[in-house]
Design brief:
mainly alpha; about 0% strand; RIB43A; cytoplasm; coiled coil
Length: about 375
């Protein structure tokens, strides 16, 4: 039992859809009444209905995108406000922690960088009656300011006023920043609305452009069909005229007289020449046969020369081989003669050495020298 696979089911559905479309097309085409009276209004209605559904779907999709964009913008604004609030709380927590647990006074090297070190230190002169104010200390002069404490109090009051003024300016700047952020958010929403409106206008314009382009393409297609018909008709007429001229002309009739040149009987017109005559072909074949025979004769002579050279080379190689063998034989005879002479000389030297040794051992030294001198004389 065969099992239906999803691929087979899809293929069957596609074939069924194609059969249904073919049946609908045949009903539209083979219906004589509709074909004689006019176009297929049912197909047009279906196309109009499909176009309206497509436009409604596109409009709903654009509206969905616009609503999603507005929702994303709102979420983005909320997230930005949340990030700013979290950043503010974090900075505030860090500042509180530093003020509570990381005071400058608790640092190990604070005494080296204490800005109030000079204020905490004892002044060089606490009063005019200070016992440390010696003459050599030069701490007391005429014309000095005796309202030091009042001036210091005034400076502290002035610093406090400046600090309060800085706090007020910081609060005003913070309020202006919040106002600017609110204005920025409102401006972004306005820009989104304007973008949505422009998108709608663009869609409308695109539809109008598509319709105009469709009409223009339709007119161009009709014009192209008419132009192709005219061109085809003109081409058929030109082809018929060309065929008639060729049939009646000298080109296809192969008239050999049309190739005759006005410069002499031995010359022809290249673009009208229809080929050589039988006499010319026979003359060319005769010349080719002569050339073949001449080539065969030259090849035979070359072959004979090659054989002669090979024979000479073999004879030379054989003579060189015989001469080399003779030289080797002579060298071997000379070596044997030299070896035999060397052997005889060696035997004589051994015998002489043996004789000398025997004479030296049997006779005294004086007698030996006397005999030797006698023998030498």
């Amino acid at each position: 039992m065969a099992v239906a696979l999803p691929k087979d089911l899809r293929q069957d559905a596609s074939l069924a859809k194609r059969r249904h479309a073919e049946l609908c097309r045949q009903k539209r085409i083979f219906n004589a009444r509709n074909r004689i009276i006019g176009g297929d209004t049912e197909a047009w209605d279906v196309q109009v209905h499909d176009q309206k559904i497509k436009e409604a779907t596109e409009k709903a999709r654009h509206e969905t995108f616009a609503a999603e964009m507005r929702q994303n913008d709102k979420i983005m604004c909320i997230l930005e406000n949340r990030i700013k609030r979290d950043r503010k709380n974090l900075c505030k927590a860090i500042s509180d922690f530093q003020q509570s647990f990381q005071k400058p006074e608790t640092r190990r090297e604070f005494d080296l960088s204490d800005p109030l070190a000079l204020k905490k230190d004892l002044p060089a002169r606490q009063s005019d009656n200070d016992i440390r104010n010696t003459i050599s200390g030069m701490q007391k002069f005429m014309g000095e300011d005796l309202n030091f404490h009042e001036r210091k109090k005034f400076q502290e009051e002035q610093n406090r006023e400046w600090s309060l003024q800085q706090q007020r300016e910081w609060k005003n700047a913070r309020a202006e920043q919040q106002c600017a952020e609110a204005l920025y958010t409102e401006t972004r929403l306005q820009f989104d609305e304007a973008a949505k409106h422009l998108q709608k206008l663009e869609g409308t314009t695109r539809k109008a452009v598509c319709a105009s382009v469709k009409d223009f393409n339709k007119s161009q297609a009709i014009e192209s069909v008419e132009r192709k018909k005219r061109e085809k008709k003109q081409e058929q007429e030109d082809n018929l005229t060309e065929i008639t001229n060729l049939l009646r002309g000298d080109l296809l009739s192969e008239n050999p007289q049309q190739a005759a040149s006005s410069f002499g009987p031995h010359r022809v017109v290249p673009d009208r020449w229809k080929g050589m005559t039988q006499e010319q072909l026979e003359q060319i074949r005769l010349v080719q046969k002569q050339q073949v025979q001449e080539k065969l004769r030259l090849q035979e002579e070359k072959h004979q020369r090659d054989l002669d050279w090979d024979r000479r080379r073999i004879q030379g190689a054989r003579a060189a081989l015989l001469f080399e063998r003779q030289q080797r034989r002579q060298q071997r005879d000379l070596r044997r003669a030299l070896d035999s002479s060397n052997l005889s000389l060696a035997k004589e030297q051994r015998l002489q050495k043996k004789y000398m040794n025997e004479v030296y051992t049997n006779q005294p030294t004086g007698d030996y020298f006397t005999q030797f001198n006698t023998g030498s004389r």
